[in-house]
Write a structure and sequence with these properties.
The complex is a heterodimer. Chain A is mostly beta strands. Helix content of chain A is 0%, strand content 49%. In chain A, the strands form two sheets. In chain A, strands 2, 4, 5, 6, 9, 10 and 11 form a seven-stranded mixed β-sheet that branches. Chain A has a four-stranded antiparallel β-sheet with strand order 1-3-8-7, with no helix packed on it. In chain B, 0% of the residues lie in helices and 60% in strands. Classes of the chains: A mainly beta, B mainly beta. At the A-B interface, β5, β9 and β10 of A face β4, β5, β9 and β10 of B.
Chain lengths: 118, 112
């Protein structure tokens, strides 16, 4: 199946600093990628939809100025958590769906990034 | 607004027993439904994808059924093994858009 690579897999940062998470589709192009957040023992909550070449679409309640999304190419989307605080500590997962091909309706997920803000 | 529910939230079975995981959704206007497996602290692994026009999909010991009219899907795992221990998530893709709506997941423990 298609592969989505997410980096880093974990990161610890100080309160007030910014952290960038990368999501890459390794063997397919993805005009659209998705960013999710998952708190312990809870399900995934969609934060935003990342669109190549245009602004991301944020879900209700998600601060776009705090969670900056850049989708600069058809294989890379980045999520930057700005001025991170302990309550931002969570598991962040990206997803991508290939633009074309026989798997064009299946979503593939990265391995996730564990963010801990101290 | 689409809501996806998974019952039970947790399940413990002895090795060899068949697993039955349930997923229900409130809006039947879906494009497809996908079952995932998530190990602790890891990302999601896609298990099965069922298109809205299909009634079931099979892969090895896994079988997933879909009854769109009643808003239900069931994942069957035959002859469970300790390695099947994980959280299983179902997600629906609505016909109108791209995003997936997830259920809360079922945490499965298969005891040797």
């Amino acid at each position: 199946g298609a592969v989505v690579s997410q980096h880093p897999s974990w990161v610890i940062c100080k309160s007030g600093t910014s952290v960038k998470i990368e999501c890459r589709s390794l063997d397919f192009q993805a005009t659209t990628m998705f960013w999710y957040r998952q708190f312990p023992k809870q399900s995934l909550m969609l934060m935003a939809t990342s669109n190549e070449g245009s602004k991301a679409t944020y879900e209700q309640g998600v601060e776009k100025d705090k969670f900056l999304i850049n989708h600069a190419s058809l294989t890379l989307s980045t999520l930057t958590v700005t001025s991170a605080h302990p309550e931002d500590s969570s598991f962040y997962i990206c997803s991508a769906r290939p633009d074309t091909g026989w798997v064009n309706t299946e979503a593939f997920f990265g391995q996730g990034t564990r963010l801990t803000v101290v | 607004k689409q809501e996806v529910t998974q019952i039970p939230a947790a399940l413990s079975v002895p090795e060899g027993e068949n697993l039955v995981l349930n997923c229900s959704f409130t809006d039947s206007a879906i494009y497809n439904l996908q079952w995932f497996r998530q190990d602790p602290g890891k990302g999601l692994t896609s298990l099965l994808l069922i298109q809205s026009s299909q009634r079931e999909q099979t892969s090895g010991r896994l079988n997933a059924s879909l009854d769109k009219s009643s808003g239900r899907s069931t994942l069957y795992i035959a002859a469970s093994q300790p390695g099947d221990s994980a959280t299983y998530l179902c997600a629906v893709r609505e016909a109108a858009g791209n995003k997936l709506t997830f259920g809360g997941g079922t945490r499965v423990l298969v005891k040797p």
